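Q: Sequence in, structure out?
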Amino acid sequence: MRILLWHGYLLGGTGSNVYTRSLARAWSLAGHVVVVVCQEPRPEGHDLGRATVVRPALPDRLLPVFVLDEYAGLEPRLLQDLSPEECSRYVEANAAALREHAPADLVFANHVLMGGPVGAASGLPFRVKAHGSELEYSMRGRPRLEAWGRESLGRAEATYVGSRHIREVLEEVVGPVPNVLEVPPGVDVDEFVPEERGAALASLLEESRRDPPNTGGADPRLPDPGNAARLEAFLAGERPTIVYFGKLIRNKGVHVLLEALRGIDARAVVVGFGDYRAELESLAATLPEGSTLFTGPLEHRHLRHLLPLCDAAVVPSIFPEAFGMVAAEAAAAGCAPLVARHSGLAEIAAGLEEEYPPLLAHLAAFESGNADELREKLRELIALPAADRDALSAAARRAVEERWSWSSVAARLLEPV
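A: Exactly. Output:
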């Protein structure tokens, strides 16, 4: 097939960015011709298989977003704050880029808005992946955007959701739409694998030495300067290690993790960027010295080696999540995820619990926002005998292999509808 894969944003970081680049790689390596239409300025920095990238110019450099972040050379503005005229110009600029690369067997567009309208305006057969952030952050409670999403999805061949939770949210926000199919996101089970500690640490430090310059940490989308030396010092010794990786915004609940660390003999690596970082660093400063390390954002090339060095990956989100890809990535690397039990994360927890030894199944999840319960489960997890930790690691890996590999996900998204 010839597939035009539309994504309004970048290809690095987490969430829909990782989803897009992973699909591009899986489809292209399966023999399809894939053109990714997105705003990534450095596509050569990502493994896209044989896919190519096109970056359309945006009218007035205006980029509709659901959460305000910095985008070099662009003017991000919340989708709900754009006028109908600004939305129309954005849609047409992106639809024109798709038509320019026609013919195509399929346009696969990310996000109900703006993916639905862009796909519809292209005049090509299209399917839409609802990620959830657009529904919760921008569309819910805004009749104009809800109606626009409903109209656009009504013209799509199919709309994909990553979990039962997002199916429910989609119907709550836009109403009934035809051909909604549930296909969870995937994990590259060949990239994220368990790794011996010494080899993992050496590889992590080597990758960190390859980081691009980021003088003074001026670019929040790049890893912090000096991470190789900082990680080497922080990860020295055998102290239990916990990791969080994702956006540093309040809704992700990182403050719940930091509160849970009080009274635990453990250290935490906090990976990511966002407008809540300074407040989180202030909160971390009240913990014992040497308890936390903030690294800025890291790519898969770092995370694949960091995760095997950690005893647990906490996903403490206090806001609904479409799925919980970071938890699945951690599990694939043999790092036991501990997730807030709600929305799409609850489905991750359920998959883990089915594989975990029965007496340890309760260590997959905790009540959302409950720092006390998180603390007790972390304390129990890091105190497990080595044999039990190994059993959890193997079970977590098995859950991913059987449920969430990218090759199977990519194939399901191209099945006839």
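The chain is about 40% helix and 15% strand.
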